[in-house]
From TrEMBL:
Annotated segments matching region Disordered: 18-41
First and last residue of the signal peptide: 1-21
Descriptive protein name: Extensin-like C-terminal domain-containing protein
Transmembrane portions of the chain: none
Pfam family, one: Extensin-like_C
Domain Extensin-like C-terminal: 45-215
PROSITE patterns in the record: PROKAR_LIPOPROTEIN (PS51257)
Taxonomic placement: Bacteria, Pseudomonadati, Pseudomonadota, Alphaproteobacteria, Sphingomonadales
Keywords: Signal
Amino acid sequence: MRLLSLLLLILLAACSGGERSAPRPRRDGLPPASRPAPPPAETAACLADLQGLGVRFNPLPDRRFAGQCTALGAVQLLDIGLPVTNLGAMTCPVARTFTQWVKNGIQPAAREILGTEIVRLESMGTYSCRTIAGSARLSEHALANAVDIAVFVMADGRRVSVLNGWAGASAEEREFLAVVHRSACRRFRTVLGPDYNAAHRDHLHMDMGRGPFCR
């Protein structure tokens, strides 16, 4: 019954088209990046996958904002088995891949390498209507198609941060971050970390946009 209600919500959102605002002109004269809404059946299948993963989430209505920023076929994750800060709208494929990464990638890595479990993730957010740093191209965050993770909080009290741990003094923490980075690269289309540029020195950026690209 709950799944039927979710599917109905998605179909209604697809028909209504969501909130629209006039797009802002680009200063460089080029047309803004955009992405069509996913087919309702594709979103419905993704929502069913999320249910199968045993997570709690809210499906969100499609929304279009100024500057071609959108949140289409998006959800908000409420409970994936451990708290994650700052999660807003994210496309269902990002939410599904992120959940799988947490359950099957980073949690096993924490147990094997650090001998403990992750009890909280600190995120730097999901949707944000902005361009890529140093570029005029729209960020995948502007399409609710990305998530940034900065800190892994462990059951034994350790805070493994990308900023301090990537090249830090602890060999265990360096290994853990390298392993979860590689694990993300096997799942997401694009993964960017401190080795990519200074803008990513303090977090792992993961999205389901262009790619594959792992750095």
